[in-house]
UniProtKB/TrEMBL annotation:
UniProtKB keywords: Signal
InterPro entries in the cross-refs: Alkaline_phosphatase_core_sf, Sulfatase_N
Record protein name field: Sulfatase N-terminal domain-containing protein
CDD domains: G6S (cd16147)
């Protein structure tokens, strides 16, 4: 199997050559046509001469609320994906909340363009998404088998419309956050699970899909979206720590949370922070330690699921022609700035793990590009030789995965939403040095070069007035961006004014 990490143009040329070869060999017919920016291919998987469709497969594994540094406690995932592929060390979820993040992955667009700004309310949930605008249709229309297993967008239920483009649909519908009592669509055969562990069920259904797709012989795109390590919510509304699989209940009992070593943990003075941090009480170290243990325990089943996925792909003879992508929908704060949770614009909530293994990707490689989840759908399209069918807001990472230098944006949009009103809360930008955002009256500006822990808010510092003005111009443009305008290189920012020298007479 040749290494397929090529551009869309190159992939389509190869498909055209394969089409002509098949027509010549057996008098059959294959058609490839383009319409409205899409590519539609109808292909036979294998003809009597033994010629096969050799386009790559892609499997996308997603966790829920996983911190970037949680990956240090997933040795199987690190060994099989990071060590055998590329790790992006500065990946973020630019809208760090479950449903908006997943909508970005479903559409390749920011919330101002896909309409999903929160988990619920008039601007949130599955109901805010156009189910026909789902990137899976790009792959289906290009002749791929497509499968989804696990947690979709918040609010998706058993009576909701099946999103377009999935040839296999096995989504959670009831008890989505319960871990042991839940329902799945079962690809048209709904099933209620009582007493089963959700990660193991998603693992089993994912591997079953791989076997079925491999047996069919067509290339496939499969999403396996896990619940762990999200906190548990029972059907009655109770909330608690994520339960562990039975074999993991004694692990990490004395594990020291990495957050304890962050200077911002339980920050002594949050009076200069934005409003969502300013009035928080000190956190309990014991409660943070207990939550950290439960989260790491829950992730062990995901770690094993990654291992069994790789094993299944290998057993089916398709591992070498499959891209495997691993990430999380958002990060999670564990007491930094006294905050526990997500949906805030701090690096703990923004940062996510991102690993990619597959044909043409150098084992053990890394990239420090400031990538986001919005970049993944268009990257998947490039890797599989398919075409997006609408304007997307991300940049394909395929050149970087091939080991090439790649021009990239220098400023990234970050934002959070509200359930009501105009749907927006704080919206801002992130550069290699600054983190800036505002809701119009309350804001923050961190100089991460001098203050990597984001403990000093420079929003009212006169020395940063020119910096803030320049960042506000970028923010104003990016909150309305679409397509290429979301991926600009704005150029250098002004330097902050130097600190005044002390008065020798004082």
């Amino acid at each position: 199997m040749r290494a397929w990490a090529q551009s869309i143009t190159a992939a389509l040329l190869v498909v055209l050559v394969a089409t002509l070869a098949t027509v010549t060999a057996n008098g059959g017919s294959q058609a490839a046509s383009t319409s409205a920016g899409s590519v539609r291919m109808v292909q036979t998987t294998q003809d009597p001469t033994g010629s096969a469709d050799d386009r790559p497969n892609l499997v996308f594994v997603l966790t829920d609320d996983m911190r970037d540094d949680d990956l240090d406690h997933m040795p199987i995932t690190r060994r099989l994906l990071a060590d055998q592929g590329m790790e992006f060390t500065d990946a973020i979820s630019p809208h760090p909340l479950c449903c908006p993040a997943r909508a970005q992955l479903a559409t390749g667009q920011y919330a101002q363009n896909n309409g999903v700004q929160h988990n619920r309310g008039v601007h949130g949930g599955f109901q805010a998404l156009d189910p026909t605008q789902e990137a899976s249709s790009w792959f289906t229309d290009a002749g791929y088998l497509t499968g989804f297993v696990g947690k979709f967008l918040n609010g998706y239920g058993p009576r909701d419309e099946r999103p377009a483009g999935w040839s296999r649909w096995d989504a959670l519908t009831r008890g989505v956050y319960d871990y042991v009592n839940f329902s799945m669509t079962g690809d048209g055969e709904p099933h209620r699970y009582t007493g089963s562990y959700i990660t193991s069920v998603i693992e089993d259904h994912t591997n079953r899909a791989v076997r079925d797709f491999a047996a069919a012989g067509d290339p496939f795109v499969l999403y396996a979206w896990h619940l762990a390590p999200h906190y548990r919510i029972t059907p009655e509304g109770g909330r608690g720590l994520p339960p562990a699989a039975p074999q993991d209940k004694d692990l990490f009992l004395d594990e020291r949370p990495s957050a304890f070593d962050d200077p911002a943990f339980d920050e002594a003075d949050v009076s200069d922070q934005p409003a969502y941090l300013r009035h928080l009480s000190p956190v309990s170290r014991d409660e943070v330690a207990a939550e950290n243990t439960a989260r790491l325990q829950a992730l062990q089943a995901v770690d094993r699921a990654v291992g069994s996925l790789i094993e299944t792909l290998d057993e089916e003879g398709v591992l070498d022609e499959t891209y495997i992508v691993f990430s999380s929908d958002n990060g999670y704060s564990m007491g930094e700035h006294r905050f526990i949770g997500k949906d805030v614009l701090t690096d703990e909530a923004l940062q996510v793990p991102l690993l990619v293994r597959g044909p043409g990707i150098a084992p053990g490689s890394t990239s420090d590009l400031p990538v986001t989840l919005v970049d993944l759908p268009v990257t998947f399209a490039a890797l599989t030789g398919t075409s997006p069918q609408w304007q997307v807001d991300g940049t394909s990472l395929a050149p970087t995965l091939r080991g090439e230098d790649q021009p990239f944006r220098d400023t990234t949009l970050i934002q959070t939403g509200r359930t009501l009103g105009d749907g927006w809360s704080h919206r801002g930008v992130r550069t290699d040095r600054y983190l800036y955002g505002t809701d119009g009256s309350d804001g923050f500006l961190y100089d991460r070069l001098l203050d990597p822990d984001e403990m000093v808010n420079r929003i009212d510092d006169p020395a940063y007035a020119a910096v803030q003005s320049a960042l506000e111009l970028r923010r104003t443009e990016l909150v309305e961006c679409a397509g290429w305008t979301c991926n600009q290189d704005f150029g250098p920012l002004p330097e902050p004014l130097p600190e005044p020298l002390p008065d020798p007479s004082s």
